[in-house]
Amino acid sequence: MLGPLVTLNCGLKCPQLGFGTYTTRLGQCRDSVYAALQAGYRHIDSAQMYHNERQCGEAIQQFMQDTSTKREEIWFTTKLQDLSGYEHTRRAIDGSLKECGLGYIDLFLLHSPYGDRLGCWKAMEEAVQEGKIRAIGVSNFGPHHIQQLLDSQPQIVPAVNQIELHPFCSQQKVVEYCQQHNIVLAAYAPLAHGEKFGSRKLLAIAHKYNKNEAQIMIRFLLQKGFIPLPKSTTPSRIKSNGEVFDFELTKEDMQTLQNLDEDYHSDWNPTISPL
Ligand SMILES: NC(=O)C1=CN([C@@H]2O[C@H](COP(=O)(O)OP(=O)(O)OC[C@H]3O[C@@H](n4cnc5c(N)ncnc54)[C@H](OP(=O)(O)O)[C@@H]3O)[C@@H](O)[C@H]2O)C=CC1
């Protein structure tokens, strides 16, 4: 396995380096997830919205069969697309389980705050009690969305908040709130879709460590304690994005990268939507 595990507030340990699958064309998804597993990734990030839970599940099962890897050695995350309340969520969880074919889901997230958050959460808690899901969390939630959930005195508190995070998007308020509440941050679009490659300071740091810009961005997020989820369908990039455990950024270089923050969102940003 590539890299360490992160302990979530529910006690489960999750591989810190994940692998993203958004916008991966369906024909490529199985191959890229398989290539990621071959490269040592043990954490795959899917979603109902990506329509690829089946392909991810097939790649994981094939890899387990080919390499005698046990199911519990691989972490599979997926997300609820439509927050249409309790009954819908019960059915949607069963749908995801059937699609992925993995027996259980390691982490199930509310994909966004848009909809009946509390009703959906209740269904997710029940699915944990029924053994269908191991951990539950949220994605794209701002502090006010999480606070509302905590104020409802849930039986299970969110383990993870998955938001856009990289040196150009630090989301400091959301990060501080989550850290105060022992909620681990997962970093989506950790490469800002490549839109910031070429930035002078990022390039200089990459040259200094003899690494590429993607590796520096991923390493920065790892050292912050986040769970980066880089996506690629290119086998050489899948591999190189995992080669981030043989060097360490100095405190000064971490600060230089931190100072690149310009609240740059390469994707949507529902964290600021009103309750
Ligand atoms: N919860 C949410 O709302 C969201 C969650 N996500 C999750 O986070 C994951 C990552 O985010 P994503 O939006 O995919 O964006 P990323 O920041 O991971 O960027 C992916 C893009 O960067 C390219 N790329 C990857 N590695 C390299 C490299 N080493 N050098 C140059 N280019 C590279 C890829 O190209 P190529 O594939 O051609 O190699 C692809 O075009 C998603 O796949 C998804 O799982 C993402 C967005 C929203």
TrEMBL record:
The record marks K79 as: Lowers pKa of active site Tyr. This is Xylose and arabinose reductase. GO terms for molecular function: oxidoreductase activity. Belongs to the aldo/keto reductase family. Substrate binds at H111. Residues 29-261 form the NADP-dependent oxidoreductase domain. The keyword Nucleotide-binding does not apply. The active site is at Y50. It comes from Schizosaccharomyces japonicus (strain yFS275 / FY16936). The keyword Oxidoreductase applies. Keywords: Oxidoreductase.
